[in-house]
Amino acid sequence: MNYFLNFLKLKKHAKVQAEIINIDTAELKRRLEQDPNLTLIDVRNPNEINQFGGTIYADQNVILPRGLLEFRIGAIFHSYDQTVVLYCGINQQSPLAAKTLMDMGYSNVGNYANGFFAWRDANLPVDALDFAPSSVLYRLPQ
Questions:
Q1: What separation in angstroms does the CA of 39 have from each of 4, 13, 44, 92, 115?
Q2: pTM of the shown model
Q3: Which residues pair with 42 in a beta bridge?
Q4: 2-127: what CATH class?
Q5: CA–CA separation, 62 vs 56, rounded Å?
Q6: What is d(CA 14, CA 78) in angstroms, rounded to the nearest whole number?
Q7: Spacing of C-alpha 142 from chain mean position
């Protein structure tokens, strides 16, 4: 049964990949430099972001977890044609989030297919969050 569910998930993911616009690291870097109106959305939850090294450093970056996307996107966007690129760690959540926004009527949606880890591994700017108060590694503000 578990294999069947995994097969269905992979099939849905492949279908979604064919319907969205994927961009790579070079294209995302170019867009961030050239388009100040672009909004970059990290769809990972705060625990994932803290545990795995932060987010992409960009003025346009917003953290909006996948589970809250449909409920909170209206507070970020006031137009259905605003440019947005979504990303996650390894391109598992962001394609589905991009497809959701497209289904909601947003027309200028992209997916950063390489994901945060590729960005970080390319030594591009990251914003490493440091607020895990339950951890012994927590640092107080200086």
A1: 37, 24, 15, 20, 16
A2: 0.82
A3: 63, 87
A4: alpha beta
A5: 10
A6: 30
A7: 30
Contact 97, 106 (CB under 8 A): no
pLDDT of residue 19: 85
Percent of the chain at pLDDT exceeding 70: 80
Q: Where are the domains of the chain?
A: 2-127
Q: Is the pLDDT of residue 6 over 80?
A: no
β-strands 22-23, 61-63 pairing? unpaired
Q: Which pLDDT tens digit goes with each residue over 96-142?
A: 999 999 999 999 999 999 999 999 999 999 998 665 555 555 555 55
Give me the numbers of helices (H) and strands (E) for the chain, helices first please: 6, 7
